[in-house]
Please model this.
Amino acid sequence: MNRIARDAGKSGNTFDPVMGCQNAVYNSTEAAQLAKLKELEDLSRSNRIKERLAVLKVKKK
Model:
């Protein structure tokens, strides 16, 4: 039983850093994608505002 616990511990010690690296890559990729999506949303909002202002200017004339 002691050998099994030791082997399981070794496996866990190997597994944890690998999963940590995978999660770090995933998280950084996800963060980059979220930043790009936020930028696109901001651009989209800005363009909608500009379009509305342009319509209002045309109606004023």
User: Anything to note?
Assistant: Residues 33 and 44 are 16 Å apart (CA to CA). The mean pLDDT is 80.
